Amino acid sequence: NYNITRSEQFEHLLDRIQHGAKDGVSPVDLVLSCVDNYAARMTINQACNELNQLWMESGVSENAVSGHIQFMIPGLTACFECAPPLVIASGIDEKSLKREGVCAASLPTTMGMTAGLLVQNVLKQLLQFGDVSYFLGYNALNDYFPSYTMTPNPECPNRHCVQRQKEKQGQKIPGKRMVEAEVAEVHEENEWGIEVTDASVGAVAQNTGPAAGLQFQHVADTLPTSGAAVDTSGFDLADLQNQLKALSK
């Protein structure tokens, strides 16, 4: 059984990242993490920080109704140790959350959605099309897909992460366009304090619509800045699994 958290197999992992390309000599372009525990994720994070290796992490919550993918560039985006999961940051043992006979992977819809998001993000990164997501979540209870970019923590406990931050200081995250705000013009004789500004200031230039003669099949609704919390207190994964099995009979 391959366990990358053990020292000898960690060294093998480093070697595969460094020489795992088709030619057997070059490093791989991207590492994909699909492991199911915190220790294994931390091990991959350590290896990729050491080698300055791009990698994508993915996971599904223990209740199987939410998942996420995260693209990490050492030194430019937060590594896995910069912002640990809430469970770990709260000092809770993740093993205590697992229930006997119940596995998050038993709900194939959430797993399939998360895997699809990961593969799509991989294709965008490797084939250079569209906007690569640096963090994309999936909440199956209300079909919510939060997306944002996390900057690295200057006080990250991982010394290799801090080293990469120093090496890449001043560099921008690929694909993230920054617009500097301009000072609005104020006329000298202006009794009412009216300002004339350029409507494009502070806006990111982008294509907001399809080409002539085409239309979008799905149009995103405007999300509220703060929504009501979803009550999951009565949710039971085992019951949902039983319902899915009953549908297949």
Write the layout of secondary structure elements.
Elements: H1 7-19, E1 31-33, H2 38-51, E2 55-60, E3 66-72, H3 86-89, H4 108-127, E4 135-139, H5 159-167, E5 185-186, E6 195-196, H6 237-247
Parallel strand pairs: 1-2
Antiparallel strand pairs: 2-3, 3-4, 5-6
Helix pairs in contact: 1-2
Short description:
The protein contains six helices and six strands, in the order H-E-H-E-E-H-H-E-H-E-E-H.
Could you characterize what this model shows?
The protein has 249 residues and is α+β, with helices and mostly antiparallel strands. The chain is 29% helix and 10% strand. It has 6 helices and 6 strands; from the N terminus they run αβαββααβαββα. It has helices at residues 7-19, 38-51, 86-89, 108-127, 159-167, 237-247; strands spanning 31-33, 55-60, 66-72, 135-139, 185-186, 195-196. A 4-stranded mixed β-sheet has the order 1-2-3-4, with helices on both faces. It has a two-stranded antiparallel ribbon with strand order 5-6. Helix 1 (7-19) crosses helix 2. The longest helix is centred in the middle third of the chain and has 20 residues, at 108-127. The chain is globular and about 55 Å long. The chain starts with 6 loop residues before the first helix and ends with a helix.
